[in-house]
Every structure is written in C-alpha cells, then in structure tokens.
Amino acid sequence: MTQPARLDQLPPEMLDFALLKTTGTLAARLGRLSLPGRSNILTPAFLGNTSRGVLPHISPDNFRKLVELEGVYMALEDFVEKHPQKTPPILQFDVPDPLRRFVALPKDTLVVLGARRQPPIATPMSNTNAEVTLSTSVGFRSISSEYYTAAVRKLQPDIVVGLADIPYGQESIGLKRKDKMSDRTESWLRDLIAKRASIEQGDPRFSIFAPILPIDRDLQSWYLEHLVDDMVDQISGVAIYDAYLLDDLPDELHALPRLSCHMPASPQELLRQISLGMDLFTIPFISSATDAGISLDFTFPAPQSAESDSTPRRSLGVDMWLAEHAVAVTPLTEGCACYACTQHHRAYIQHLLSAKEMLGWLLLQLHNHAVLSSFFAGVRASIAAGTFDADVAAFEAFYEPALPAKTGQGPRVRGYQFQSADHGHAARKNPKAFRSLDELAKLKAMHGQQPNRKPQMQDVIDDEALVGLVQMEGVDPAVQLESLKVEDADGDDKA
Amino acid sequence: MAPVPMPSALTFELLAKCSVTKARAATLHLPHGPVPLPIFMPVATQASLKGLTPDQLADTGCRLCLNNTYHLGLKPGQATLEAVGGAHKLQAWPHNILTADSTGSFQMVSLLKLAQVTEEGVRFLSPHDGTPMLLTPEHSISLQNTIGSDIIMQLDDVIATTSPDHARMLEAMQRSVRWLDRCIDAHAHPERQNLFCIIQGGLDLELRRQCTAEMVARDTPGIAIGGLSGGEAKDAYCRVVDTCTGLLPEKKPRYVMGVGYPEDLVVSVALGADMFDCVWPTRTARFGNAITAHGVLNLRNATYATDFRAIEPGCQCPCCRPADAKPPGLGLTRAYIYHVTAKETAGAHLLTMHNVHYQLDLMRRARDAILQDRYPAFVREFFAALYAGDRGKYPEWAVVALRGVGVDLLRE
Ligand SMILES: [Zn+2]
Ligand SMILES: [Zn+2]
C-alpha cells in the first residue's frame, strides 16, 4: 500500500453503493459498498461484531493477520461508561480518527458505529423525548441526541446508524408509544443530519444510515414520508430492525444499502433475510458458538447430497468439548483455509477447551468467522448464478434448522455481554455457582499451598491452569479461582 | 556410582564472560534451534501461553518455552500425546520446549500434605477423581519422552526451603540424587532430549555443595538449581545460587527454576545463572499488570483511563510499537488496555505479549551488555531506572549480592 497515512484526513466522498444485480423488490441482490480509503465490500456481507472495540477473543494484531473482514460494527455504549460524571476517555483522545486509532483497527477497515451493541440489552428505564438509554459495563446510562451527534462527530466512524427509539424488552408496545417511536427517531435523525452539515469543508464526514423501525408502515408513515421527501439525499443507507417489514420500505429508498439490525439466530434465518434483499449483517451467533465451544461447520451452497431423503440432516456445528476429538489430528473443517484449520487440529482445540485455555476460543473464533466469510462468498456466487432460491432450499433440506446446543462451559460472561432473549437466543448468564461439598473437597484435596494468601507463592503458581485441571462443571472460572483455597507449605493458613 | 556419561543433544557455546561479575553470554544449540543465553522462558503450563498463538509467542522473540509435565500428563494425557506425536505437534510450536514439573503446580502438589513422598516416587490423589496415583522418576521420564521436549527435567524431591526439618532436607537432597540415577537409566532418547539434573538442599549451603558435587559427577547436559522461589529470603536465595554456580562446570547451561521478577533475573545473571522461568509475567497480565523498566503498572487503575501513552514508551513489542514505526506496531495506549483489561480476553493477550516481550528483551539487553563487557554498567542502569535513581530504595539483598560479585550499586 502507498502511504495511506493521510488518506483518512482527506474529505471522504459520500459512500457509494452500486447495485450489481437485483431480481425484484423482495429478492436477494448483489451490491458493492465503497468508500475511498476503505476496502470495497461486496454484499451480501457481514461486519465483525465487536465488543468494547475488539472482535471477542481476537487481539488487534491477530485481527490484522488472521481475519478477513472488510468492516466492523461498534457500539458507542461500549465506550461511554464514565458519562455523565466524566468525559469518556475516548472523547479525550485528541488525534485524527480517534476511534480507529484507539482500538488499533486497520486503516482500510470500514467502521459502522451505532448507539447500542448488537444485540442490545433491554434497559429498565425507557427512552424519553430527549434521551436514549444505553447499557454500559458499569450500568445503564442515558445520553441525549445532542450527545450522540457530538460523540460521533468526534469519533469519525465511516457510517453512523441514527438513534432509534426502540423499547427493547417490552412485550407489547401501545399505539401511542409507537407514534412516539417514529417521532423521536425522526427528530434524532434530523439532529444527526444537522450536525453533519455543520462539519466544515475538508473535515472528515460520516455517512448516515437511517433506522427503519420494527413497526408497521402505517405507524411510521410520517417518518418514512419525511425521509423520502426531505432527507433522502442526506442518508446513505438504512438500518432495518425487522427484516420481515422490508416489504414496507418506500421505493425511493430501495437503492440504499440495508444493514440488518434484526439478529439472525441461524444461517437459515440469515438466508431468509438475504432472500428478502438484506445487504449487511452483524451476526452475534458467531461469537456465541465460539463461546459454547462449537466449531461452525456449514457451507453455502450445501454439499451435494447423494443420500436419500431419509438420511438425518447434518449438524451446523461440531461440539469441540466432546472427548471424541481428543486424538483427532484433523482440522475443524476439512479444506478450511483459516489459521486454526491450517495450523492446528481438533485434538489441540479440544485440549484447550477442556483445560480452559483462552487460545481455544481464539482458534474457534477465527474458524467460525472464516466459515461465515466462505458462506457469504457462496451466497454471492449463488445469487450471481441465479441459483439462490434453489440453493437455499437445498441448504434447508441438508442441515438441521438450529445450531447445536452448548454442552461445555464458555468464558466468563459479563453484564454488558448478556444477550437479550428476544433475539432468537435464549438469555445466557453465568450458571449460578454450584459448589457441592464434593467439588470443594476435590479442590482442597489437590492443593498443598495457599496461593491466595502468600504473595511469593502466588506468583510462581499458575492457578488458572489448576482450574483447567480440575473438572468442575457449571462453575464460573472466576468463582473457581476465588475458591481455590490451598494450605500453606508450612501449614501457615491465615484464612 | 555415576553411570556412563550420557549423550548430549545440545551444544553450549560460551561467547563471553563478564570481567567483573560471574555473568556469561552464550548460545545454546538445542534440537529445535539455537537460543541465546541468558534467557527467560515463558511458562505455557498446559501447552498454551494465556491465549497467545504460537506465532504471537514467537514474535516476542521466544524460542524456548516451558510446558508442565504433570499438567500434560493429566491433560491431555500420555495416550493423547502419543497419538498426536508429542507436545510440539500438539501445540504447533516449531521451537524448543522444556518440560518441568518442579515449578508451579507440581511443586505445589508435591508439597501438599496429601502427597506422600516415598523412595518409590510421589503418591498423590488424582485431581480428576481423587483416586491415588503414583509418579515415579521412571514415569516422569517416560512421559517427557512422549512429550518430546528438547529439555527434560529429572523428578526431584522438593520440600519448602523454609522448612526447619534438616533431616528431611538431607533426605530430599539425597533422594533427588538417587532419583536422578533412575531418570538417567529410564531416559529413552538422550540423543534428542537433554536431561537436566536439579540441585536440591534447601538453603543449607553445605547440602547444596554436596548435592552439586554428586550431580555434576552424573554429567547431565545441563544443570538446574531447584527448590527455590518458595518464599525464602532473597539474600538466602542469592547465597544458594552463588554457591552452586561457583561449583558448576563452565561449559554447561545453568537453570534457576521458578525465577522471576526482573531484578531477580538481573542479579541472578550476575551470579552466573543462565536460564529462568516463571509464571508471574503472564499470570500478572490477567490482573492488568504491565511490567516496565520503571516498575509494574496496574492498568486497571482509573488513573490510566485517559493515559494515552504507550504501555511503555519505546517498547518494541507489537502492542507498544507506534503505528507509524517500521515495521508498524499497534500503537496501543494505556487507556485502551484499561478499556479492555479484565473485560475482554484480548486484553489479557495483549498484556501477556508485552510482559513476555519485556522479560525476553531484558535478557537480550543483558546478553548484549555481557558481550560488550559492560554488564556492571547495565546493572546500575537497570536499578537506577527501576527505582527512579533513588539509591535509598534499592533492595538490600540485591546490593549485598551484587557487592559479592564486584558491583557496588551504591557507589559509582
Ligand atoms: Zn477453519
Ligand atoms: Zn510493550
């Protein structure tokens, strides 16, 4: 690459989206998203779904070396926990392109910034006319539209998803509330557009994706009309919160790229959304599979099956916790070109999971992302070839309809990572620490010292590895470490 | 009776000796490539270093890392190791491996009251199901032969250096010598795996001398000083290392097990030790601690939330190296580490990389200084940076130990 250093300081032109192939209004389509200085994205495609600015388990150096992703999604709520008492650190980082620099993202990776994580966690407080509620690592916080626009102005992402007033976690939403949703969303979008208009010539500008709310067209008709009448030239894409309402999208917005904020729970759901004309995705099930120790194992189109209809459908993933992999010196998926499959084998990954070594999750995460990259390449080829609908049918016939259930224990899940139940994934939390006498006895029986008490001993003992050694199912590793109670060499137990 | 000298699968190439202290610079040629001495060896207890890929570990400059025999014996177990073809294949690590079980957990387990040491071996309860297990010198070597590590360690009888029981200490020392003979007899691959003996004897210098003499007579390819880092006083530790290195042959690598902190490494090198290992740098990364020339920074402290300097400015690790450097680094800030540490596993990966790089780089710089015969100056610079020039804060044990090898930190 030639000196890209100054490229991001040039005034970026507006995002360009070229539709390369369409086959009707509610049909799969091919496109190309391009922005000077960033990699082109051929759609349908997916964005890396970050947590606190990092693709879970993948440090920025590995992201550069081992991951093929042209774009990522980030959530402002992952960066503003000091608000409102203090100015969040990221907003004090006084360099060009501060968000990208802060998280060490490559220059050519497209950054999409939204307010909420994907999927968002339901908040106990409702949004108001003035404020949206966020969930940060230290609790729930509210920010104003003004704050949001100022923050995105400062952070300089490539694309900003406008604030949407969506009452997450609410079972049923009244008509009056739905009216408010579209009013607020419109007003907040206007704020964002106004903010961008105030950016001086030559300063970095962001592109705007307008939220399309998960309510019937009638209920957001004013908002949609205004979008078409006043704002269509100001927005570069739409963020769609209910893929099954794509039908309601005004014709005037059809040429815009569509980001799905409707989290798919399975590859089949992804395909359904693609078949309705969705272009861009974040896919939380990739990281959930990784954390569950599941190696995704599907391709699109599905392999040609010579077998009869009576053969059982193939699983979408392999549970790497199972002991049957312990001596398998084969890759996760035969023929997969990812780092995990070319450098390592199932036996090692099974060992890492069983020993609770973090590397297991990294390797699965790399592989699972590679599986989705190939999946999308297959999807695009299939749409180009005009065989998409048939390929989807074959896929659904070939694979089981849902990802396999998790059996092993994943990494510690923190509050801000809890997933809400209304996105196809059951809520997962750390199982309540279950410490039977038997388990405690096991722990105590195996240790002769007290690493928690005596600092010098603490530093020479790999207590994490000890936890990996003991079989304690259903107990949070952090709890295990805490309860790792071992006697001192000289019997000096000052517990 | 010492058996016939065993073949060696290493070459120790001594390059320079400090003209003042006992420090040495060498290259140790091992079956999976040369490694520079002195060296710090990161501890990948369970065949993985805290989330780093083998490539990331190699990028820190590491060419020799540790695995724990005891841990690998239980998980994935000897049968799996056999099926996979050893630890190099298991973890896809093309460089050298040393397997030990004296440091870390085995030391811990062997010290527990429930583990019983007999002449036969160490009897303990399986952490899996509580069933009694017996680890003998023969079994330990067989396991390490299966693991295929480049350096294997004898099974030794370790008791805490702080134990007041002299008779037990003597017994442990003598038993370690007998076990060494059994290990030598059991060793199936001396032509491709180097067995190191482990000198025991607690803090009793006379016992250490006796043990050293017995073990040197066995002529193993390398020699370890064991049983330390168990919480003994630092001055006592230094006396043991100094005494042992004084009796060791010049042309063999000397490994002090379970050490340590940067100042321990710098002083121990001056006392004539070449190799070190410790879980501390990687373990402490989990708690947000970054090792720097100016001391350890706890990056979980809120003061770092808006500190946009590198973890250690000037550090050449992938995290700290600026994005516009050649080759480019990540240019990460302390604020970013604060942002992810203890919240994302990647935060621990990053600090682990930095800390391992720090320890390896410290030994690289020590080696350069020895090669240029300026190790005493290096030691002075090191302590001046660590204590911000305040000599009053220099630890007494380090001052005394270094004075013993001709370097007075308190005088120019
Ligand atoms: Zn793969
Ligand atoms: Zn560094």
TrEMBL record, chain A:
One Gene Ontology CC term in the entry: cytoplasm
Gene3D superfamilies under this entry? Answer: Queuine tRNA-ribosyltransferase-like
Its annotated compartments are: Cytoplasm
Q: Which UniProt keywords apply?
A: Cytoplasm, Metal-binding, tRNA processing, Zinc
**Keyword Ion transport among record annotations:** no
Reading the lineage from the top rank, the first entry is Eukaryota
Domain tRNA-guanine(15) transglycosylase-like intervals? 28-399
List, in alphabetical order, the GO biological process terms annotated in this UniProt record.
tRNA modification
What cofactors are annotated for this protein?
Answer: Zn(2+)
Quote the record's binding site residues for Zn(2+).
C336, C338, C341, H367
Q: Can you quote the record's cofactor note?
A: Binds 1 zinc ion per subunit.
Keyword match NADP: no
Q: Which InterPro entries match?
A: QTRTD1 (IPR028592), Queuine_tRNA-ribosyltrfase (IPR050852), TGT-like_sf (IPR036511), tRNA_ribo_trans-like (IPR002616)
One protein family per Pfam? TGT
Q: Identify a single GO molecular function assigned to this protein.
A: tRNA-guanosine(34) queuine transglycosylase activity
According to the record's subunit comment, the protein's assembly and interactions are: Heterodimer of a catalytic subunit and an accessory subunit.
What family is reported? Belongs to the queuine tRNA-ribosyltransferase family. QTRT2 subfamily.
> What functional role does this protein have?
Non-catalytic subunit of the queuine tRNA-ribosyltransferase (TGT) that catalyzes the base-exchange of a guanine (G) residue with queuine (Q) at position 34 (anticodon wobble position) in tRNAs with GU(N) anticodons (tRNA-Asp, -Asn, -His and -Tyr), resulting in the hypermodified nucleoside queuosine (7-(((4,5-cis-dihydroxy-2-cyclopenten-1-yl)amino)methyl)-7-deazaguanosine).
Cite the HAMAP family for this sequence.
QTRT2
The name this protein carries in UniProt is: Queuine tRNA-ribosyltransferase accessory subunit 2
Q: Which organism is it from?
A: Massariosphaeria phaeospora
TrEMBL record, chain B:
Q: What EC numbers are recorded for this enzyme?
A: 2.4.2.64
Active site residues of this protein:
D277 (nucleophile)
What broad class describes the main subcellular location of this protein? cytoplasm
Instruction: Give an example GO cellular component term for this record.
Output: cytosol
Q: Per the UniProt entry, what is one GO biological process?
A: tRNA modification
Q: Which InterPro entries match?
A: TGT, TGT-like_sf, tRNA_ribo_trans-like
GO function terms (MF aspect): metal ion binding; tRNA-guanosine(34) queuine transglycosylase activity
Give start and end of each tRNA-guanine(15) transglycosylase-like domain: 21-386
Where is the region RNA binding? 258-264, 282-286
Q: Which UniProt keywords apply?
A: Cytoplasm, Glycosyltransferase, Metal-binding, Transferase, tRNA processing, Zinc
Compartments annotated for it: namely: Cytoplasm
Q: Report which reactions are catalysed by this protein.
A: guanosine(34) in tRNA + queuine = queuosine(34) in tRNA + guanine
Q: Which residues bind substrate?
A: D156, Q200, G227
Cofactor(s) it depends on? Zn(2+)
Q: Which residues bind Zn(2+)?
A: C315, C317, C320, H354
Q: Tell me the SUPFAM superfamilies matching this sequence.
A: tRNA-guanine transglycosylase (SSF51713)
By sequence similarity, the record places it as follows: Belongs to the queuine tRNA-ribosyltransferase family.
Q: Which HAMAP family match?
A: Q_tRNA_Tgt (MF_00168)
Known partners and oligomeric status = Heterodimer of a catalytic subunit and an accessory subunit.
PANTHER family in the record: QUEUINE TRNA-RIBOSYLTRANSFERASE CATALYTIC SUBUNIT 1
Q: What does this protein do?
A: Catalytic subunit of the queuine tRNA-ribosyltransferase (TGT) that catalyzes the base-exchange of a guanine (G) residue with queuine (Q) at position 34 (anticodon wobble position) in tRNAs with GU(N) anticodons (tRNA-Asp, -Asn, -His and -Tyr), resulting in the hypermodified nucleoside queuosine (7-(((4,5-cis-dihydroxy-2-cyclopenten-1-yl)amino)methyl)-7-deazaguanosine). Catalysis occurs through a double-displacement mechanism. The nucleophile active site attacks the C1' of nucleotide 34 to detach the guanine base from the RNA, forming a covalent enzyme-RNA intermediate.
Protein name as catalogued? Queuine tRNA-ribosyltransferase catalytic subunit 1
From which organism does this entry originate?
Massariosphaeria phaeospora
